[in-house]
Design a protein that fits this description.
alpha+beta; 5 helices; two-stranded antiparallel ribbon; binds zinc ion; 143 residues
């Protein structure tokens, strides 16, 4: 499928549904210098479409790491599983924040595979930025 422009109204609805924050690391737009991006849950290159149900919001960092991935490897079992779907799955059923608020930990195979694939807990720049958010009391999110 050819990449085509996402209608402004669809983008507005996706941003609202995602509560204007990254579906993977939960970084809110008001704390990220770059504009959060509309991402394809199933990438176009993997047969995904611009249908609203295939779109969510991601920060540029998560979107770059996710790239065209649809699966990841569970660090505990070595099993290949589908990545977390922020549109249809509940984040806190698959992840939790460490006590210090810096790292996301996987509770399920999907959570662990997504953390590894998107480097949710080992990107040094993200960890540094989050550490200041914790000091400011802006992080981690509770829901
Ligand atoms: Zn993110």
């Amino acid at each position: 499928m050819a990449r085509s422009r996402i209608p402004v109204e669809v983008e507005r609805r996706v941003r609202a549904s995602a509560r204007n924050r990254c579906g993977y690391c939960l970084s809110p737009q008001h704390l990220v210098m770059a504009r959060l991006e509309i991402e394809h849950i199933i990438p176009i290159s993997r047969g995904g479409s611009n249908d609203e149900l295939n779109l969510w919001l991601a920060c540029p960092l998560c979107n770059r790491y996710k790239s065209d991935k649809i699966t990841g490897v569970d660090s505990e079992t070595g099993e290949t599983v589908k990545l977390f779907n922020p549109r249809t799955q509940v984040l806190f059923e698959h992840f939790y924040w460490t006590e210090d608020g810096l790292r996301i930990v996987g509770k399920t195979p999907i959570g662990r595979a997504t953390i590894a694939a998107l480097h949710l807990s080992d990107d040094p720049d993200a960890l540094e930025v989050r550490s200041y958010w914790v000091i400011a009391g802006w992080h981690p999110p509770k829901d």
